[in-house]
Specification:
Elements (H helix, E strand, L loop, with lengths): L10 E7 L8 H14 E10 L7
Parallel strand pairs: 1-2
């Protein structure tokens, strides 16, 4: 989730279901978001579902 082997602009749609909330550090969440948008095609769609964690 923090680093993938996919090429830039590989996907039209990326889904993440109950994964990103497991990244507790702010820099890890930013890295994951950057990676998602790196492999997403221009005008692609990201669909995520996360749990709300108290204190984050």
């Amino acid at each position: 989730m923090l680093k993938t082997n996919f090429n830039d602009s590989s996907f039209d749609v990326i889904g993440s279901n109950l994964c990103l909330h497991n990244l507790y550090k702010t820099d890890e969440r930013k890295t994951a978001g950057t990676e998602i948008f790196r492999i997403l095609k221009p005008n692609g769609i990201v669909i995520t579902q996360i749990l709300k964690i108290q204190g984050i």
